User: Fold this.
Amino acid sequence: QVQLVESGGGSVQSGGSLRLSCVASGYPSSRYCMGWFRQAPGKERERVAYINSYGDQRYTGSVKGRFTISRDNTKNTLYLQMNSLKPEDTAMYYCAAAVGTYFDTCAANGYKDWGQGTQVTVSS
Assistant:
C-alpha cells in the first residue's frame, strides 16, 4: 500500500525558512515523479514544485529562487527547502506522487497518491 507522510510545517515570520519532508512507502522502485502542492483557504490547489526520478526539477514562478525541491531515493524521501518565506506562502502543503520516469509520463499518469498535508503559516 502506497503511503506518503509529510512533516516539517510550522509557523515562521516573513523572511524565515522551513524544510518540509515527505516519506514515501509502498513504491516498488524509484521510477516516479514527486511534487509539492499547496492550497490556501478559499483558493485552488497550486503545484509548487516537482521532481522526476532523474532529479530534474520544475517550479512555479512565485517560488523560483526561494524554494528548492530535492529527493533522496535511498531514503524514499522528498524535501522542500523554503527560504525567504512570505505571507502569501501560507497554505496547507501536500506531497504527491505519480508513476513515471519523465515529466510527460508522470503528467499522463497523474498525481494519484497524496499525503495528509502539513500546515505552513508565515506571518508578516
Q: What stands out?
A: Residues 18 and 82 are 5 Å apart (CA to CA). The chain has a mean pLDDT of 94. The longest helix spans residues 103-109.
